[in-house]
Amino acid sequence: MKIQFxxxxxxxxRSCISITTKKGNRYLLDLGIKFQEDGFLGxxxxxxxxxxxxxxxxxxxxxxxGGLPLFEHQNLKGPIFCTRQTFAITKSLLxxxxxxxxIKHTHxxxxxxxxxxxxxxxxxxxxxxxxxxxxxxFMYLNAGHIPGSAMILIEADxxxxxxxxxxxxxxxxxxxxxxxxxxxTEKPIDVLITESTYGNRNLPDRKILNKQFIASVKxxxxxxxxxxxxxxxxxxxxxxxxxxxxxxLSCNIYLDGMxxxxxxxxxxxxxxxxxxxxxxxxxxxxxxxWISSPKRRSDAIRKxxxxxxxxxxxxxxxxxxxxxxxxxxxxxxxxxxxxxxxxTNGRHLIEEGFVYIxxxxxxxxxxxxxxxxxxxxxxxxxxxxxLAINPKQVFFQHGDEESVDALNQWAKKNIKGTxxxxxxxxxxxx
Length: 430
Hints:
33% of the residues lie in helices and 23% in strands. By secondary structure, the protein is an alpha/beta fold. Strand 22 (393-397), helix 14 and strand 23 form a beta-alpha-beta unit. The longest helix has 20 residues, at 84-103. The protein is globular. The N and C termini lie close together (5 Å). 47% of the residues are buried.
């Protein structure tokens, strides 16, 4: 078996790993893109796309799925395996990404026909069930990251490989957690490929974080201010709705942007690992007001309240329209709900106190807070996973260099197997 890293090697974004079996069959684990200010980067070094025998998609986030139509444009023929919920959400995210690229006059590298063809190539899989495809067997296991997300266990060439994708061992308001189950411990795992997003630090306790967040929201509302909550449309938006829906708040709660579409997708597809679905349904349809036009947005801002809207890193979308009206009032609060990438508005705001609005550098006067409501696991559990599985070889990827190196150095001292921190393009013979 041969493994090559085409993305997410010492970086976060464009996850894509190829596996080539002894028979010469090539498969991809994820097919993502990495966004930049002037467009995006796709996986590097994937040759002869029509000869690929299949794509195994771990979840719907575009850094794992966004390259699907790009490769469809290059005549991808192999089936795309994923959970039904993953593809329902992926389809919405891809359509939205295409629309935004057209609005920004950024070449999306594919067209609407490619989006249609991706749907035709998809084969749905169920959790916790073995499947056979050509010369390999595979099983999807709950990853606890977002609805539909999975870790992928593969058996090929008398080897067992586990690709974690993005995973979370902490139960959230929306998801049951990933666990180290018998499939991962009863028989030896030869190769473990794990994400390393928080490989050099641990995350705060979720219950404490929830209480702090709610207390902060209530304080701002009681003080006569509004709360602007930029969210990621998938995962964080629904968690936020559930947390706020459990409170008896004396103000209006508004939902705007892509989060409306994704919430509908989550509610309309089934998954045994999604929590609080009935409660989310009630909050979504009965306790929040949807914003569907600029006029309704202006009216809502004038009334004040809690605004939940995309995008989560302040890079675009309706959140900037709210920010234009709310940034100058110290009574208001902007609450970031997760990781902010380098060179994004969200990172500028945290580190330097400014954002760019319509090209203007704006020093924000409202209160700003950030909470680590992450959908990823942290350093302690990644180490626990590695020790419990005890793989013969472990690859740390999907993390910045500091995170990857921290885990790699720890593993060299604490496990018997061989450990790697691969760079882009690296090839390994297993």
